[in-house]
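Hi P.,

Sorry for the delay on this. The queue was packed all week, but I finally got your sequence through. Input first:
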Amino acid sequence: MNERREHPYIDAFEVLDPGDDPAAAIGMLASRQVHFIDGADIIQLATFQNMAHVDIHTANTARTAVARFRRGSHELADNVKVNKALRMAVDSATILGLAYRLGVPRNTSNFSNPTFDALLSKAEGILDVEARREVMVEIQTLMQEEGPIVQPLWQAVYTPADKAVVGLETHPTGYCVWENYGITA
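Then the structure:
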């Protein structure tokens, strides 16, 4: 089925790499050498917001920044009270990651808690959603109390784009639907 578009198609896309200097991307959009910046950095956001010809397209994501304490590396990393104080000092929710089971390769924090491992194994074996939720509450409570991470934020992604760009939607995973994009005069 052919859909009628409200804006013209784009014949080609040219992808330019501004390099590692955040000012280069800012300059490219400010001078209209490019129509949008895919994956703008948060440190550039205020500058892009001050450009009259630019709209900011935003998407919330499941990306997060995590501070991990490697158990056995320092007395503060092993201190559950210090870990908990840091978690409580930020306004965030801690999620369960399968990376905290003892012996798994991604357990970079070296977290070791037999109760956690047993609860996780129990939850994995429960098919009933409500029954599994009850066990997950126990796991999450344990991680809030003793877990080795501080999760301070959920990251949003930003795509500053010239207002002439139409059809652009920022996707949480960075997925681009190029065929929906267009440029108005």
